[in-house]
Amino acid sequence: MSRETWTAVDRYFSDLLLPNDPILDAALQDNAAAGLPSIDVAPNQGKLLNLLATIQGARTILEIGTLGGYSTIWLARALPEGGRLITLESNPKHAEVARKNIERAGLDHVVEIRLGQALDSLAQLDAEGHGPFDLFFIDADKQSNSEYFQWALNHSRKGSLIITDNVVRNGNVVDESSTDPSVEGVRRFTELVAAEPRVSATALQTVGSKGYDGFAIAVVTEEK
């Protein structure tokens, strides 16, 4: 099977199951026009995030890695009245594009964008007493996945979901000899999750318009 086939299948299901959404389409168009890398989640993956947040009944969400705010919009739309989402972005240009996309979606009263290196922003959130969060979406630099996961675990409750994107790395995650920092980061993260008794976790491979990758999902089973 080719990426062309995977993309066609994505399009088939998205055309049938995801109604036309000018706001989300405009977000992707603006991201491309601003020269942001084309690494947003696919529409059907965005809907999956939305469904998971809805099933979870999430009222508080932390996203690590905003890019242009496409996944942010999907997640924020699942929040009930009074819900809040904090998203962390290190690139000022990305954050500005995301801010405009989120404002156009009418979600600027729900979403707070924090600009800065994610680990620094997490330290600030800790100092401010944020948490526990009901759902975490980790989609930033893979080298720091372990630190992001550990922070999420320490700011969760029993039942919190921790979703981590891009863990398959086009299959390279199984290469023990890889010197790719992202692959090394994902392998450290996976080993950390495997050894953590406070979560129950799995990982899934995905193929589609974004190629061959996958995500990990963990549910917190014990309080800190």
Tell me about this structure.
With 224 residues, the chain is of the alpha/beta class. It has a single domain, classed as Rossmann fold. The chain is 43% helix and 23% strand. The chain contains 8 helices and 7 strands; from the N terminus they run H-H-H-E-H-E-H-E-H-E-H-E-H-E-E. A 7-stranded mixed sheet has the order 3-2-1-4-5-7-6, sandwiched between helices. Helix 4 links the parallel strand 1 and strand 2. Helix 2 packs antiparallel against helix 5 (92-104), helix 3 (43-56) packs parallel to helix 4 and helix 7 (145-154) packs parallel to helix 8 (181-195). The protein starts with a helix and ends with a strand. The model has no long low-confidence stretch (mean pLDDT 96).
Mass-distribution shape: globular
The main sheet orders its strands as 3-2-1-4-5-7-6
Largest sheet: 7 strands, mixed
Task: Calculate the terminal CA-CA distance, rounded to whole Å.
Answer: 44 Å
The domain tally reads: 1
Mean pLDDT: 96
Rg value: 17 Å
Structural class, please?
A: alpha/beta
Number of strands: 7
Going by CATH, what is the homologous superfamily? Answer: Vaccinia Virus protein VP39
Q: Would you identify the CATH architecture?
A: 3-Layer(aba) Sandwich
Q: Approximately how much beta-strand content do the residues carry?
A: 15-25%
In quaternary terms, these chains amount to single chain
Residues in helix, %: 40-55%
Would you tell me which CATH topology applies? Rossmann fold
Figure out the total of helices.
Answer: 8
CATH secondary-structure class: Alpha Beta
